[in-house]
Design a protein that fits this description.
Length: about 300
Amino acid sequence: MTGLGTLASTAKRRVGWLVRDRFPFRPVVRQVQGVELVLPWSHRLPDYAAWGPLYGQNLVELARLLAASEPLTVLDVGANVGDSAVQILNAADGQVLCIEADRAYLEFLHRNVDRDARIHVVEALLTVDGGDSGTTAVRTGGTTRFVEGASGDAMPTVSPASLRADHPAFDRLRLVKSDTDGYDVQLVPAVAEAWADSRPVLFFEYDPYLTRLADLDPEAVWPSLSGLGYEYVAVWDNGGLAVGRTTVDRIAEQGRVLDEVPGGRARSRGYWDVAVVHRDDVEGLRAITELVPGELGLG
């Protein structure tokens, strides 16, 4: 596409978003990546999937490969409208435990998953210790970030340990997906510790920008996971394209590329999808090696 064509397409897209954002929670039915979903009209998932067919499919393929070797049990932290859960179970049999704290998206989550007995929903905000601190939901284009503030639109909180105790069907957890807009670096190690004997594969967004907005250190996640026995890391870009494999002791330095500002200009925020595998998880390592065969370099 020419430069003018790209500009026109971008302008058209932004105008469309402005219109849709005026009526953000109008329900619409969309076919997205092989499944039917009820979505808020403002949700960006159909757009992302149309522009990049690989978007979100790294998680689905990872789940499919893991399901080939043992029963698939998935914890979906920040389940949003249930798109990940529905797509995973469209590709492989198993069970998914969804946890979502935004009341606005819970309506759509239930509409998408309640018809499937393999999917269970917890209406709560996952926190490291289950503590109830005031939070406010900040919504942008189909995703939610919780910040300090009034607690009127947030759900009760739950800790990973309580979540496990309350849902014994997920005692042998195989896969964790976390998408909490910056809080993943704090929550994922807590979940991994709560299910330490199961050694689940950990799939989450590594987004230094949003992590710092949450007043957290993005690089702190790696020594935390190393201390729990996690060693291998597969990396995809934010469109689902494989970038390379590495290890937890190298990725902090490699991930600093996400902070680079091309040409000294304000950059388009970048993040990675990462899958982290325990050093004793042979099948998990086999799965990420098949999905991401190359090595991740520096720079």
